[in-house]
User: What shape does this take?
Amino acid sequence: MVKREVSRQNILQALAEIDKSGVPKRRQATKYNLYHDGKSYPPKYVVSLATKYATGQELEASEFSGGDETNTFLSSLGFTIRAENNEVKKK
Assistant: This one.
């Protein structure tokens, strides 16, 4: 389950970490991307990293669902999520 302690600022910290360190091959996006400042990011990995900034411990991929759970959460924080075909996911 996505931790509700995660804030927009935590997401931005995760995006900065990804910009610096990249995305591990096993954590690449499969169906959706988060778009921010002209770049795309794997939503589930972003939330995993953001949880580390919010709670001190990264959320393992097996502990929560990608897709609707992750995308709805990120959309609620004002981020744009698009399917692989670039269709914008509505809030």
In short: Residues 87-91 have pLDDT under 50 and may be disordered. The chain has one domain: 8-83.
